[in-house]
Amino acid sequence: MIEAVIFDFGGVFTSSPFEAFAKYERDRGLPTDIIRNINATNHQNNAWALFERAELDLDGFDKAFAAEAKALGHDIPGRDIIPILAGAFRPEMIEALKRIKTKFKTGCITNNVPANRVGETDEGRKFYATEVMALFDHVIESSKVGIRKPDPRIYQMMCETLKVDPKTCVYLDDLGINLKPARAMGMHTIKVESGSQAVAALEHATGMNLS
Fold first, then answer.
1. Looking at residues 108-136, what average pLDDT do you find?
2. What is the pLDDT of residues 11-52, one digit of tens each?
């Protein structure tokens, strides 16, 4: 029996940032997936991980990310990466959330960076998307709690706050590495590849019409 549906944010309610990374790489003649490779190296304690745990400010991230890129032979300032994270909203996912919350508890677990460290750009405001965040019963942001996915503790925190057993939860994320801990806890997991695919999987899991 399902009691709660828990979502990631970026790559679920917005298009994947990987699409923006790919465009950045193409425009600058960089190797395909170099940004993802940088982020995947020492993924628990690299510049990106430290920034999402609020252990670096923007200047610190800018320098640390650039150093990691330089170690792989490329010049990529960290400041270039933040504005391209936003992505376009998926309205079908927002509609699905609105319908789901009429029947189930809802939560959002997002790895993010402190809002006051990305500047007041339109992209920054879209990235935090407060109007969507307000729809959830509870939101956990890595930059506020100092823990980030895939640390199992952050999933447990959500279950404790919502007062649900992990085995009664559905969890959606666009990254397989973030789905593994949820699945190990007993959650039904959905890897998000597109809005329509995610909605269909949610309909199957919840028995609701979400379209």
1. 68
2. 999 888 888 899 999 999 999 999 999 999 998 999 999 999
Residues in CB range of 73: below 8 A, 6 or more apart: none
Residue 84: both structure tokens together: 């391209």
17-84 belongs to CATH 1.10.3470? no
Query: What pTM was estimated for this model as a whole?
Result: 0.82
Enumerate the CATH 1.10.150 domain ranges in the chain, comma separated: 17-84
pLDDT tens digits for range 159-196: 999 999 999 999 999 999 999 999 999 999 999 999 99
CB proximity list for 33: less than 8 A, separation 6 or greater: 21, 22, 25
Q: Could you confirm whether domain 4-15+87-206 is CATH 3.40.50.1000?
A: yes
* Mean pLDDT (whole number) for 85-104: 92
The CATH 3.40.50.1000 portion of the chain extends over 4-15+87-206
So what's the pLDDT on residue 115?
A: 64
